[in-house]
Design goal:
heterodimer, A: mainly alpha, B: 686 residues, three-stranded antiparallel β-sheet, elongated
């Protein structure tokens, strides 16, 4: 029997790995992967806590919903990356510093 | 107290003032002229002629008449009222007359003599200033003014001796004359101050006049008692020493005589004036003015110094080869006679000798000027490398300069003191009185008159040597250089006139009816005290006879030695010769000992100044610099350091914070994470 705590640990690991990838990688695609990892950590939480929900399978439903949303955001993000690449001829986030004033 | 002057006296006083002032006016006018302007001579000569005329008038009205003493208040300090004025007595009017009488021929002579000089106007300017100083000196009645004119005489002689100031030797000579005279000036100033302290007045008439303060004061029991006060007697001796120094410096007495031979660097006409009537006469004149002050023993000192100076200078003159130097030493010698005469109480004879000496010495110098001038022409015409003043080059000039020769003979005879000349009258008077004086003293005092007697024979010898070397025999320069072109003559009337005038004045008729007895001379008689009794004793016959017979022998032997053969008659290696030729080593002594000591002392002072005084200042400087450096270090490191530290902190914070706003996505994320973590940690702790 997998305990709640073990789900949480996996989830935390996933979240931290994702966070680390986001802040350390120098490639926009890899950063996107990191974001996906963090999202999955959240979805795992949803599923794990759905067990204590009074309504049946509420957590799973929300998880599915989140996965769909994640797919959508990923598509949008990829599109942004594609545009960024067109404009800057790079996807290294350090080189893209137009966000400053 | 201002005595009321009668009309004629007032006129005399104003004449005297103008006689003194006119040369000064000429000096002031000449200052305005260019240095080559020929008008300068005219102005100066006119002034001296006018001075002479006025002086004659003053002389005629004052001579043997009551003393005229005119004065007015000069200034008042506290209770002291200083009077200024003129004192015209026999002594001052005699000098007042003598100065322009001698200066006039010199002026006339100079117009020709200095004709080609670049400093023609400057020369006459100085000459006028010189005459003014001397005239002022003789008439003032006040010790302060006397001192002022005394210094002016020294200063103007300085200007004249260094007239050719581009010559190194002239500059050295005038410096020497000036320093020597300054020593004398210090002495005179000391004496003036002491006299004022004792008697409370500067008035010469009140001090030295008949029944003046000096006459009533006396020295008793170690105190010098005056009419108002008594001070230790030592001050009287100090005052005498000061006066003696002053006289020695101006009248070139041992030990301050060495400036006079060097003063020959000036133009010869100036030498004539300095040696005759002005500069050197000032010392004897001062003795005459201060005469009542001297005590018996002080007069003896004067006599000893005078006799020694006369003898020493005569021995030096024996071996000198420079024409002007011989004459200079003869001047020193004759001045020694005058001081000696003052010392033995022959006051009248001393002043008489001063006057007669002025004429014949001026004459001899003017002759020397002509001879040197001619020699210089020969030198310049033929490009010879000779000293135009060296008598060894001369000889046989009597044929070329006939008039000069005749007047030289007259001047030389007067200098030797042979009968029919003025020199005989005055010099024999001094000798006779010296013997009288010594007789009343004791055996030891006989040295003085015998030294004087010997000196007068030496005088005969060196004068004869000079005349023979210059005017007799062959012209040695021509003999040595047979091919040279010689063209010489007596010169124009401007040369001849003064010579003839002075030659006539060097003969006896001007001074006395009788050519033999000095007691008949009018100048002599006027200065005698009324109670003087002429003591007719053996000396009055023996001494003149002795002097003159031996003098003739001496002259003849000089002719024999120098006239017959041109070689040296005496060994030039003997000790006596060397002493004489090197001027008794006095100059050398001064150079080696006194000047060396002064230089050493000034070096010590220089060292002290440099090391101690400057060292102290440098120390302060260094301390100041050190403090300033410390302050600078503090400023840079502490004050500025604090500011820099703050600025650095702000800068590093700024640099740190800047990174979060660099436009990089991931840095934004970092900061967000940081904030979240901070908030989380705070939540956990509190």
């Amino acid at each position: 029997m997998i305990t709640q705590q073990e789900f949480m640990i996996v989830s935390v690991l996933l979240f931290c790995i994702g966070l680390f990838i986001i802040v350390s990688k120098k490639n926009a695609i890899q950063i996107l992967i990191g974001i996906e990892l963090m999202l999955n950590a959240a979805i795992l939480n949803l599923v794990a806590f759905g067990k204590f929900d009074r309504a049946n399978n509420g957590g799973q439903v929300f998880a599915l919903f989140a996965i769909v949303l994640a797919a959508a955001t990923t598509a949008v993000a990829l599109a942004i990356i594609l545009n960024v690449y067109r404009r800057y001829k790079t996807i290294n986030p350090d080189k893209i510093n137009q966000l400053k004033d | 107290m201002i005595p009321i002057l009668s009309h004629t006296d007032a006129q005399t006083v104003s004449f005297a003032i103008w006689a003194v002032a006119l040369p000064f006016v000429a000096f002031a006018l000449n200052l305005l002229l260019f240095s080559k302007s020929k008008i300068a001579a005219l102005i100066s000569t006119t002034a001296i002629v006018a001075s002479l005329v006025l002086a004659v008038k003053v002389f005629l009205s004052v001579w043997n008449a009551p003393v005229i003493h005119a004065q007015t208040t000069w200034f008042i300090i506290g209770a002291t009222k200083v009077q200024v004025g003129l004192l015209l007595n026999n002594l001052s009017v005699l000098m007042l007359l003598l100065v322009p009488v001698i200066a006039l021929p010199v002026h006339i002579y100079s117009t020709a003599y200095m004709k080609e000089d670049d400093g023609y106007s400057r020369y006459f300017r100085y000459l006028s200033l010189f005459c003014f100083s001397m005239l002022g000196l003789v008439v003032v009645d006040n010790l302060i003014l006397l001192y002022a004119f005394w210094e002016l005489v020294g200063f103007s002689s300085y200007l004249l001796i260094g007239f050719w100031f581009t010559r190194q030797s002239a500059v050295m000579a005038n410096k020497k004359a000036f320093i020597m005279n300054r020593i004398g000036d210090t002495g005179l100033l000391t004496a003036v101050i002491i006299l004022y302290t004792q008697f409370g007045t500067f008035d010469i008439q009140a001090l030295f006049g008949k029944d003046g303060f000096v006459q009533i004061s006396n020295i008793a029991a170690g105190m010098w008692a005056g009419p108002h006060s008594a001070i230790p007697a030592v001050w009287q001796y100090v005052a005498f020493a000061g006066i003696f120094l002053a006289v020695a410096a101006k009248s070139a007495q041992f030990p301050l005589h060495t400036w006079l031979p060097d003063a020959m660097e000036g133009p010869t006409s100036v030498s004539a004036l300095i040696h005759a009537a002005t500069m050197v006469a000032a010392g004897v004149f001062l003795l005459g003015r201060f005469y009542p002050m001297f005590t018996e023993s002080e007069l003896t000192i004067l006599a000893v110094i005078g006799a020694f100076t006369a003898f020493m200078a005569a021995t030096i003159a024996l071996t000198q080869n420079d024409l002007k130097r011989i004459l200079a030493y003869s001047t020193i010698s004759q001045l020694g006679f005058m001081v000696l005469a003052m010392g033995v109480g022959a006051y009248a004879s001393s002043l008489f000798h001063l006057v007669t000496h002025a004429f014949f010495k001026c004459l001899l110098f003017l002759v020397a000027g002509i001879v040197i001038h001619q020699m210089k022409h020969i030198k310049d015409d033929n490009n010879l490398d000779i000293d135009p003043q060296n008598i060894l080059h001369m000889g046989g000039l009597r044929k070329k300069l006939p008039l000069t020769f005749i007047v030289t003979i007259i001047g030389a005879l007067a200098l030797i003191g042979l009968p029919l000349t003025s020199g005989y009258l005055s010099k024999d008077g001094i000798l006779i009185q010296a013997f009288d004086w010594a007789e009343s003293r004791g055996a030891i005092f006989n040295i003085i008159p015998y030294a004087a007697l010997l000196t007068s024979w030496l005088t005969a010898f060196y004068v004869a040597r000079l005349v023979v070397k210059v005017f007799f025999g062959e012209f040695r320069l021509h003999k040595a250089n047979p091919h040279i072109h010689i063209h010489m003559g007596d010169g124009s009337r401007l040369y001849k006139g003064p010579l003839v005038f002075l030659a006539i004045c060097s003969l006896f008729p001007l001074f006395s009816n009788s050519p033999i007895f000095y007691e008949d001379a009018w100048i002599y008689k006027s200065f005698l005290p009324s109670n003087f009794l002429a003591r007719e004793n053996l000396y009055h016959i023996v001494i003149p006879a002795l002097i003159n017979i031996l003098a003739v022998v001496v002259i003849y032997s000089a002719f024999a030695i120098y006239g017959k053969r041109n070689a040296w008659a005496f060994p030039q290696t003997g000790l006596l010769y060397r002493i004489s030729f090197n001027e008794w080593y006095i100059d050398r002594f001064y150079n080696r000992v006194i000047i060396k000591f002064v230089m050493w002392f000034s070096n010590v002072l220089y060292w002290f100044d440099k090391k101690v005084v400057d060292g102290l200042v440098d120390l302060f400087t260094n301390v100041g610099i050190g403090l300033a450096k410390l302050a600078a270090w503090l400023d840079r490191n502490i004050v500025d350091g604090a500011l820099h530290l703050i600025a650095g902190i702000v800068q590093s914070i700024g640099n740190f914070a800047r990174r979060f706003q660099g436009g990089k996505v991931q840095y934004y994320l970092y900061s967000m994470l940081l904030v979240v973590a901070v908030v989380f940690i705070f939540k956990m702790i509190f």
